[in-house]
Design brief:
Blueprint lengths: L1 H12 L6 H5 L5 H4 L11 E12 L2 E8 L11 E2 L2 E3 L7 H13 L7 E5 L3 E3 L4 E9 L15 E6 H4 L5 E9 L2 E10 L2 E3 L2 H14 L2
Parallel strand pairs: 1-7
Antiparallel strand pairs: 1-2, 1-4, 2-3, 2-8, 5-7, 6-7, 9-10, 10-11
Length: 209
């Protein structure tokens, strides 16, 4: 059953993607509140994240991570495993797989890459992020890098697709600065920003016949 489902996703990812229109449904007011740039520039860094499907207890799951609290724009946020392109990466798929292995221990040799979503520009960190979608046939042996990852969230796909978990709220991003942000309530965590925007496009892809 899952194999047919994953093959349909692979085929769908080869066609035209929902793109920015789907992403912007979950965009916060951060860009306008802080007057951030809206397009990449010469200093923009390139990165990739992995959106992984895997079976657990009869359900398809997707792993998310919570970043540690640190002095940075993504402190404490929930995200997909991933990071910046490094010298030696042959392509963005390799970046996503390498970073996922480093952060949460997913074996890249066990991942079947289905395709990619639309690249997303993240102005707060000046990153262009490429979401790679893959699947494993059994639950990964997760091993967290304590420096990079504070917690692992194993989210059932049914929970991700539950529209009652969507909402909008005020989020304080720094002293004196509050934004309005659409979010997903997943495993008791507020998922917003770039990760929510990628999830929005993913869910539109999955909702199509």
């Amino acid at each position: 059953m899952h194999e047919r489902y994953f093959e349909k996703i692979r085929q769908r990812l080869q066609a035209e993607l929902p793109g920015e229109k789907a992403q912007l449904r979950m965009a916060s007011t951060l860009r306008s509140v802080l007057s951030l740039r809206s397009h990449p520039d010469k200093g923009t860094r390139i990165g990739a994240v992995l959106i992984l499907f895997y079976p657990k207890e009869g359900l398809i799951h997707v792993p998310l991570i919570r970043r540690p609290v640190y002095k940075g724009v993504h402190s404490g946020q929930v995200a997909f495993p991933g990071g910046r392109v490094e010298e030696g990466d042959k392509n963005l798929i390799e970046t996503a797989l390498r970073e996922s292995q480093e952060e949460v221990g997913i074996n890249p040799d066990e991942i079947d890459v289905l395709g990619s979503l639309t690249p997303l520009y993240v102005p707060a960190s000046n990153f262009m992020v490429h979401p790679v979608i893959g699947v494993t046939r059994h639950p990964p042996d997760f091993r967290l890098d304590a420096y990079e990852v504070d917690a692992l969230l194993e989210v059932p796909l049914d929970e991700l697709q539950d529209i009652t978990r969507m909402g909008t709220k005020e989020i304080v991003i720094r002293e004196g600065v509050t934004i309005q942000a659409p979010f997903y309530d997943l495993q008791g965590h507020t998922v917003w920003g770039a990760t929510a925007m990628m999830i929005s496009e993913l869910l539109e892809v999955l909702s199509e016949p």
